[in-house]
Amino acid sequence: xxxxMNNVNEISKLRExxxxxxxxxxxxxxxxxxxxxxxxxxxxxxxxxxxxSSGFSKIAVIEEDGKIVGFSKIDLDPKxxxxxxxxILKEYRGKGFGKSLLDWAMNSFRSAGIKAVELKVIAGNxxxxxxxxxxxxxxxxxxxxTDDT
Length: 149
Prior knowledge:
Radius of gyration: 15 Å
Low-confidence stretches: none
CATH architecture: 3-Layer(aba) Sandwich
Number of strands: 5
CATH topology: Aminopeptidase
CATH class: Alpha Beta
Number of domains: 1
Largest sheet: 5 strands, mixed
CATH superfamily: Gcn5-related N-acetyltransferase (GNAT)
Strand order of the largest sheet: 1-2-3-4-5
């Protein structure tokens, strides 16, 4: 079941999804395995609370048997919306939950009058195919150098 998460006191329930996302990025990233999470999960959870409280962002969750198995966070900048997160726990993928969350996100952008939307995808993440089905196209390539010595 998809629902919007409006209560900031529930944000801590997203920790498992954030941990799974970091693990996924570390396993599929073509160039930066082992660097995720970039920010500690506690900081990300606090930032999510601030963003939701300010009204700048919205979060939707997918629940199955009372457990959050995925979520999406969007930022509602009128110039260009941003799909900040879309994550489904590995064991729940392939059930259409990603599509449901992306439908929710795109409808939320449309309802807010936002006509341009951006997102970032880790190089190597197969989710790029889902975004392409919705009409997303590469606009830039973000490159990073890291001195690991």
